[in-house]
Specification:
single chain, about 240 residues, mainly alpha, globular, disordered N terminus
């Protein structure tokens, strides 16, 4: 995606109309998220989590990959702190995602801003950043789109918990690749420049190295940090 403009327009108001538009915009990808959520519900049940615990986790955490990581660690004798740190490490990229939205969100009331960021995920962030970069409001995609993804994830979780045993192994459909392909399509949807390619290659290279040689799940945050650093370097070069 192109480097964000240096002087973005002031943040518009978050309205019902733009939230509805964002909800409908993210609804197609939400269908895949629901099936992925069903896979999580099934995996949680097989790991021994109660339906109540599984549902509460999806309602409050709303982070697919980190929730799967917790499931993988659930049967081991580890502390609650370890689980919390695992979730934080995998989702630490949200710190960078939130920071990238600061130019458009900092003028909003704190309650509104917190509500929008509570629904932040990879898909609606990618759509919103593109909207902002094109001079349009991305608040609808952030909140309305995030709400669509959140509802789909939790509905899918319920399906996986209560009827997942009848769905067999959902992983065989390769649903874990859907989100990656969606984000990749967002990157290449518009004309790219050498700066964007350089940032993408830096993030991908660092992520691959961390995946093969670093601690488990470290590639997510390592790739995000590497891409962010390269973005700052490229932007500094453009300013000079």
């Amino acid at each position: 995606m192109s480097i964000l403009p240096r002087h973005p327009n002031p943040s518009p108001l978050l309205t019902f109309a733009c939230s509805k538009s964002g909800f409908l915009q993210l609804l197609p990808i939400s269908l895949f998220v629901a099936v992925f959520g069903a896979a999580f519900g099934l995996a949680a049940s097989q790991a021994g989590l109660s339906p109540c615990s599984t549902t509460i986790m999806s309602l409050t955490v709303f982070a697919g990959y980190s929730q799967f990581a917790v499931i993988a660690l659930w049967s081991r004798p580890i502390s609650l702190l370890t689980l919390i740190l695992t979730v934080f490490a995998i989702n630490a990229r949200h710190l960078l995602m939130g920071a990238s939205l600061s130019p458009w969100l900092h003028t909003l009331p704190p309650v509104t801003r917190s509500g929008i960021l509570a629904a932040l995920s990879d898909a609606n962030w990618a759509v919103a950043v593109k909207e902002f970069a094109l001079g349009r409001s991305g608040l609808g995609a952030l909140f309305g789109g995030g709400l669509a993804l959140w509802l789909a994830w939790n509905l899918g979780t319920l399906v996986g918990v209560y009827v997942g045993q009848d769905l067999q192994d959902l992983h065989r459909f390769g649903l874990d690749m859907v989100m990656g392909c969606f984000l990749l399509s967002m990157v290449f949807e518009e004309k790219q420049n050498s700066n964007t390619l350089l940032i993408g290659l830096s993030a991908a290279g660092a992520s691959l190295l961390a995946y093969h040689f670093g601690p488990q799940n470290s590639h997510i945050i390592v790739g995000a940090i590497a891409g962010g650093i390269m973005g700052m370097l490229v932007r500094g070069r453009d300013v000079n």
